[in-house]
Amino acid sequence: MRAAVLRTVGLAIAGFVVLFGLLLLVRPLIFSLAPPRDDSVYVVATVGDLTGGPVERPILLNAPHGLLGEQTSGGHAEITVLVSRTVTGSYAVVNAWSPTHDCALTVGTDRVTDCRGSDWTLAGDPFAVADPPLQRFPVRVENGALVVDFTHPVDSGS
Description:
Elements: H1 2-33, E1 42-46, E2 55-61, E3 71-73, E4 76-85, E5 91-95, E6 106-107, E7 112-113, E8 119-120, E9 136-137, E10 139-142, E11 145-148
Antiparallel strand pairs: 1-11, 2-4, 3-4, 4-5, 5-9, 6-7, 7-8, 10-11
C-alpha cells in the first residue's frame, strides 16, 4: 500500500515536471511564430462601453506616428482619443487634440471644445467653417470590439 502511494506521488511529480518543461518550450515558440499586433490593429473600446455616451481614452502606441498631441517616451507614444457613436449608428474615433490651437479637447455632452472655444462634433466635424476637422482614425467592429488603425489617419478631405 505504501509503495503504491509513493509510486503515485512519484508519477505525479514526474508528470508535473514534464508538463512544466513542455510549457517552457512551447511558450517561446508561440510568440516567435505569432508576431505581436502593431498599431494598425488596436482595440480602443467595446460597443458596450459607449452605451453611456462618448468615451475618452488614453492610448499607448508601440511607436510614434507623428499624430497631433502625441507625447513620446522612449520608443513609445501616447495620445488621447475620443470614441463615440455617430448619428448614423456607426462609430468614430478622433484625436482629442485641437488642430487649430495645439491643446487638449474637453468633452461635452454633444461636442468637444478646445482651450480657445473652438467646437467640433463628437465625430470630429467642425462647427465653424474655417476650422479643420479633427484627426480621425479608421475604425471597424470585430466581435463587439472597436478596432482602430493608428498608422493611417483618415484624410480630412475624405
